[in-house]
Each structure stands twice: as structure tokens, then as C-alpha cells.
Amino acid sequence: MKTFFTQPIGQLARQNSLGFIVCNVFLLVVGFGELDVPVGLGNLLNFLWGFSLFSIILAGYYLVKDQVPDYWREASAILGGVILVGTFIEISSPEYTLDNGGFVPMYFFWGFNSLIYNLTMRGTGVFRPIYEYLSIFGFISIIIFSGANMFFDYAIPESIQPIFGIGWIAMVVGLGYGSYVAWGDKMSSSTE
Fold it and tell me: What would the pLDDT profile of 144-155 be if each residue is shown by its tens digit?
């Protein structure tokens, strides 16, 4: 058990990238299929989603630490903390369930910071371009949809909400699989 919690950051990030993808696939199937999921299972999946995202964010600094200032380490820790606190708010407060759009400020803050991260890392060779573009598209859609709700109390019409779904899927692939591949590239280049 000790080796699981003390494994290298790259392995931890890759495992959590896959966990993030699995949680999102399940949540998308449940959301688009309008399936009823027991509250306990929904809360567990929401927690696993938040924890896997927390781990990806924290590991993200170590993936790019040669290309960014040292204070990004603390910024990553703060963003990861916001994700965990926001996830616990969603789990514990009925008015912030995923069915009601979740804890919108968390999604806006995460999308805004992650967009800055992706734009800063663009073209550095850390991430493959396809995952950069998917992430950027995904985070822009998260910012627009969460910002409209948070700042203007505007609910996006149902007719264009599928665009958000496409943006979310782009983000899942760009962030989830993009991080997985980037860590694989980094680990293979450091062993050569």
C-alpha cells in the first residue's frame, strides 16, 4: 500500500488521467441518457472525479516546471484545493448537485485558470497540439457557459447546450488523455 501512495508523480498522474476519463464517461452517459443513479453512487463518482482532477492539476506543475515560474506550484495547489472544496460543496449541498449545474464558480475558476495554463504551454512541445487545441476549446466553452450563469444569471438555451457537451468532451480528451500522453512522453524521454 505504501508504494501506491509514494509512486512517482508521472505514474500517479497517468492513473488519475485515466480515472478522470472514466468518471467523465460515466457522468456523460448518465447525463445524456437521463439515467437515475443512486445518490451515494453519484456522490462517490463526483468525489472520484474531483480527486482525479485534483491530482492532474497538482501533477501538471511537475510536468511543465522547467517552463514556468516556481510560484505556479503554489497556484496549482490552490486550484486543486478549489476543485476539492467545490466538489465537496456539490456533494453536500442539494442546491449544487450536478443535475442543477453544480457549483458554478468552481467550474469558472478552473476553466479560466486551465485556459491560461494551456495557452502558456501552447507550442512548447510538452503537450501534443491536438490535445492543446481540444483543451483550449473545452475550457473556452466551460468559461462561457459557467460565466453566463455566474455573472449574468443567464441560462443557456437548451437548443445550444449540446455545444457545451461537445466542449466538455473535448476538454476530457484534451486534459485527460493529453496529460496521460504527455506524462508517457516525459517518462520515456527521461529513461532514455
Answer: 988 887 788 787
